[in-house]
Specification:
The chain has two helices and four strands; from the N terminus they run αββββα. By secondary structure, the protein is α+β, with helices and mostly antiparallel strands. The chain folds into two domains: 46 residues; 45 residues. Strand 1 and strand 2 form a beta hairpin.
Length: 101
């Protein structure tokens, strides 16, 4: 009645077990990678609101390249070149005098 012999059935069951284990390992691995992707890393932090009195942007060598800060009652953005010299300011100095700064 049986078309397959006992050793063939055992071998087929072994193959299916190996395939099922491989799929399980792949599933657990992908879940672990996705769970790890949600953790904050120094190079990527998710936030809806960031509160600070001053934000300083530095290049890979630690040189300050931009500064955003509150001075008096106005926000001020200063952009620096590679030598540390201010190349752009918002609002401009003339506007800062108008604001009483």
């Amino acid at each position: 009645m049986m078309a397959e012999s006992f050793p063939e059935v055992v071998a087929a069951r072994r193959r299916w077990k190996i395939i099922a284990m491989a799929l399980l390992v792949a599933l657990v691995g992908s879940l672990a990678v996705n769970a790890r992707a949600d953790l904050p890393f120094p190079e990527r932090v998710k936030a809806r609101i960031v509160e600070a009195e001053e934000i300083v942007l530095k290049d890979s060598e630690g040189q300050v390249r931009a500064r955003l800060a509150i001075q008096g009652n106005a926000a001020r953005l200063i952009i620096f070149d590679a030598e540390g010299k201010a190349v752009a300011e918002l609002p401009e100095r003339a506007r800062m005098k108008e604001l009483g700064q």
